[in-house]
Amino acid sequence: MFFSGDPSTRKRVDLGGRSSKERDRKNLLEQTRVERNRRLWLRQQNSAALKIQKCFRGRKVVRIEKSKLREQFYKVYGKYCQNVDRNSFGPDSDFLCQFLYFFKADNSDDFLVLVQICRLLWWFVQDNGDVVKLFAGANYSSTCALANYRVKQFTHACIRALHQNRNHLKDQLLLTPEELNVSTIPLLEVLVLLIDPKLPWSCRTVEYLFQNNALSLLREIILTGKDNAENYFSIGKGSSLERVLTAVICHVGQKPCICSNINPRYCFASQIITIPFLWHLFPNLQQIFAAEDLSQCYIHQMANFGQNLINLLPKDISNEFPSYACMLGNMLETAGIALSHPDCSFDMAIDLAAVTKYLLAALPSVKTSHSRESSMIPEDDMTGDDEVMEIALDRKLEQQIYIAINTRFLLQLTNILFKGISSVNGLDYGPNDKDVIAVDAICGFLYVTFNKMPLERIMTVLAYRTELVPTLWNFMKQCHENQKWSSHLSNDAPGWLLPLAVFCPVYKHMLMIVDNEEFYEQEKPLSLKDIRNLIIILRQVLWQLLWVNHTTSANSVKSIPVSSASKGQSVQAIQQRVSTVVSELLSQLQDWNNRRQFTSPGNFHADGVNDLFISQAVIENARANEILKQAPFLIPFTSRVKIFSSQLAAVRQRHGSQALFTRNRFRIKRDRILEDAYNQMSQLSEENLRGLIRVTFVNEFGVEEAGIDGGGIFKDFMENITRAAFDVQYGLFKETADHLLYPNPGSGMIHEQHFQFFHFLGTLLAKAMFEGILVDIPFATFFLSKLKQKHNYLNDLPSLDPELYRHLIFLKHYKGDISELELYFVIVNNEYGEQTEEELLPGGRNLRVTNENVITFIHLVANHRLNFQIRQQSSHFLRGFQQLIQKDWIDMFNEHELQLLISGSLDSLDVDDLRLHTNYAGGYQSEHYVIEMFWEVLKGFSLENRKKFLKFVTGCSRGPLLGFRYLEPSFCIQRASSNASDESLDRLPTSATCMNLLKLPPYTSKEQLETKLLYAINADAGFDLS
């Protein structure tokens, strides 16, 4: 009970909570299990050793027996078969049975015997002509099983022998039948002899070869011969190897062929058509394959493999020669021949489009230019999912594919697929199943082609030489009117997805080339009514993709694959692509509508834009903000102006608070306003440019004008300097026929530092916009597009040079031989009487304009005038402009809207709107008789006098873009005197532009008020009146 000091009597407690007996029991069970497994492993080891020994002894016995049989064979038939006669091949002879038993492909003696046997067999058949009787005797039906077996084994032995010794025979593999003395030709010719389609065992023999992977061996034989040929592109026709393939190619499993159970992995299409440049090696085989029946069978066979096609192909030869690319190149080279056949079926075109789509999708993008004209398309039109591939195709293989997808191929395929589609078919019920299949096929093929191939040639062909645009539009119109969108893309994919993915870039390309007469007058390719309906459809689609359904698609983890060969070809990827091309097309249609209105501007606005959307649009990275960047036309112009103004206000507030102690003051002489402003503003940093700038004017007598700059003098300064800087007399800008400004291409001939001046003018315009000052500078649309970093096209040329545009349109529609006009790819520049000649293309002085290249010539001339000549001036102007105005701010507006941002609209000079938002002080009220007279006088002013009045009281001749409600501070009329004495009535009205304040004496008559007010606003006395 009490502690005795002896620890041994202490009870031991297992803190693990288990008894030692339980632990010992588990250890025992574990040891037993390990022992049992060890004994099992020993038994398996002994059993395996016995099997290995048994197999080894068996093989040793077989090897000994084969060796004995080989020696006996030599004794009976001779080592070189000198004792063999035609009866040796018959069913009663053991000659072939013995030989096939001991034959080894890697035994040199056996190989030589096989060659001699083939040579003898060939001679016997040539002598008698009946190979069936040679193998089966007089009665084939009674000995067919034996004869068929021997033929199968013998043909397979020939192929194995060639494959085993292919490296030693590499120089003989592509020889013609006349070279019978070499080793390979007898083997190949006997193969041709024994698998002749006319023979009764032909299909069974070929089927046996297919099942035993003989085509894979043939593939390696061909590759060895090709790799060791000096120039396999010009090998003579009719080689023995080609004759073997010709005999095999007709076995496609369809009548009259009875081959069955052909493994797709080892069939002719997988093993042979994947050999690089197959038809260059075997031109005769190409003609046979291209025959309608055969090509249709093989293409249908490949189409049946579906998206798994690429997984069934043999291992790539190298990274530069992937099997799928080799198959695609070979197939496309023969597709043109098959499509040109008058009886080419609709089903074959469907299969061809499907197979081409699967294989193209796996290719790395072929974006390199193969033609010098491709430079006409700017980089922003290069559509597609640009997934960078580390592995590039062989250059010749890439060219083979590129050349094969040519004008003829595209025309043939689209014409066959669209042959049965009528523009009036199914107006009441929507498109039929055949229409849906055709549209799915061509759109699936073209969508992948756009992503993988250079676009210039493809787009031009589709736009001008096919009916793709009107056909797809009619299809989409029927679907939209009947609310019946069908597609075989995916159950979860809307039916309009693929058609729009193809229609939009093609129609967009067409709009870049079409002229104004074709679009507005001839209404080609679509009527203006159809275009109005198209705009509504595109707007609804874009809003659904970007806003309504965006959350679902963006958060979807699992995408539905269109092609397993390409990671990017998912429904989600297509939706992203469609949203891009639809927004680009709508933006372009909006440009056409701005040139000459054919639909209401509101048709471009989405129905779902509300205050919640606008509030989110100003938040960076919000979905509404992303939509504002990608498709700003969906949002009404006034809403975008509010967003733009709020962004500018936020930046001004941020920098204004910092600039209180670093205010920049300019002393400007009115007669040297441009030079003084350039010298002082050019020294400011970007940070200081964003801050406040205050101006003091000096008149012509060197005296500082009265007035403290609270913002009004600066506004006056900005209006005056912009008028001076952009005056055409200064030489930096020129005027179009419509008195619109654009950079002078010859500015360098007038000013040495013209690029610095353009940088300064860009900064100047940006400062005006940054401060919310409207300036009356009408820019040409094609120059405003440079502020958005956009490319100008032919339809922009009338605003610059209407006469040149008419001449180019004359060339475009000229019916005669254009080469007789003696035009070349050069253009003459005439600046200030100095003429210079420039080539439009390298070597253009020697390149005559013809009917084939006149379209290229027309667009190169337009590009030179609209883009190339003013590129440097525009670039420097843009750099200065972007010092204060971010690109994404400007991208919210098109060129027409951008001009409104710069200069405002005459609609903003609304007297009633100004009266509605005017405050009164000093005893005036809205009902005061002086105020009533004032508004009557102002309403009776001309537009020019209204602009002068507005400048007199606000410092700017244009009102706020969204109306006087947004004038800061609000316009105010203050009584200039407390009494109506004669002295006060003789005073002129004065103003405080920094506060938008008019100090108006209490004139007693309307005539007096009008006279004094007109004198004041026309005095042009600077700020001395104040």
UniProtKB/TrEMBL annotation:
Any one GO molecular-function label of the UniProt entry: ubiquitin protein ligase activity
Annotated stretches, region: Disordered: 1-28
Keyword Transferase: yes
Biased composition (Basic and acidic residues): 8-28
EC number: 2.3.2.26
Spans traversing the lipid bilayer: none
Reactions it catalyzes: S-ubiquitinyl-[E2 ubiquitin-conjugating enzyme]-L-cysteine + [acceptor protein]-L-lysine = [E2 ubiquitin-conjugating enzyme]-L-cysteine + N(6)-ubiquitinyl-[acceptor protein]-L-lysine
Keyword annotations: Transferase, Ubl conjugation pathway
Segments forming domain HECT: 685-1026
Gene3D superfamilies: Hect, E3 ligase catalytic domain, Hect, E3 ligase catalytic domains
Alphabetized InterPro entries for the sequence: E3A/B/C-like, HECT_dom, Hect_E3_ubiquitin_ligase
Record-annotated active site: C994
SUPFAM superfamilies listed in its UniProt record: Hect, E3 ligase catalytic domain
PANTHER family the record matches: E3 UBIQUITIN-PROTEIN LIGASE UPL6 (PTHR45700:SF6), UBIQUITIN-PROTEIN LIGASE E3C (PTHR45700)
Purpose of the protein: Probable E3 ubiquitin-protein ligase which mediates ubiquitination and subsequent proteasomal degradation of target proteins.
Similarity field: Belongs to the UPL family.
Name listed for the protein in its UniProt record: HECT-type E3 ubiquitin transferase
